[in-house]
Amino acid sequence: MTPLSVDLPHNLGRAEARRRIENGTGSLGRHLPAGATVESGWTGDKLNLAIGLMGQDVRAAVDVQETLVRVEIVLPPALGFFRPLIEAGIRKGGEQMLEDKSKTKS
Fold first, then answer.
1. Nearest 10 degrees: CA dihedral of 75, 79, 54, 96?
2. pLDDT tens digit at each of 106 positions of the chain
3. Phi, psi dihedral angles at 80 (to 5 degrees)
4. Which end of the chain is more exposed for a tag (fewer CB within 10 A), N or C?
5. Is 63:46 a contact under the CB 8 Å cutoff?
6. Chain centroid to CA 49
7. pTM for the full model?
8. How is residue 104 annotated by DSSP?
9. Cα dihedral value 98, 12, 83, 31, nearest 10
10. How far apart are CA 1 and CA 42, in angstroms?
11. Measured between alpha carbons, how far is 78 from 68 in angstroms, rounded to an integer?
């Protein structure tokens, strides 16, 4: 098994970060290959995910903290090759989801 941990810093506070993640969880399947399944459930401020992907079972957890969201995934050996792509996708999607749009850019 190949562990993968991605930290996504944010300035939203725990409640707003969690709200955004809750709202985005339903669309997770659209970002995965056809036939992927996603089951999710919250325990406190931690979202647990069970993903069926390419005949493999992937477990993930999204820990929402005050200034950081930590995504931890354990990839089965058959999916270890995709680690760089998975990490890049988590960073891109997570940063977009947690972007503080209240700040104006000059």
1. 70
2. 778 999 999 999 999 999 999 988 877 877 777 788 889 999 999 999 999 988 889 999 999 999 999 999 999 998 888 899 989 999 998 998 898 776 655 5
3. -55, -30
4. C
5. yes
6. 9
7. 0.86
8. P
9. -30
10. 24
11. 29
Amino acid at 52: G
Largest Cα–Cα separation, the chain: 47
Token reading at 104 = 């104006």
**Displacement of CA 44 from its chain's centroid (Å):** 16
Distance CA 32, CA 53 (A): 8
Q: Tokens for 69?
A: 């969201």
Cβ neighbours of residue 87 closer than 8 Å, sequence gap 6 or more: 4, 6
Contact assessment for residue 39 and residue 29, using Cβ atoms and an 8 Å cutoff = no
Fill in the DSSP letter of residue 105.
P
Place of tokens 């190949």: 2
Unique residue bearing structure tokens 């930290």: 7
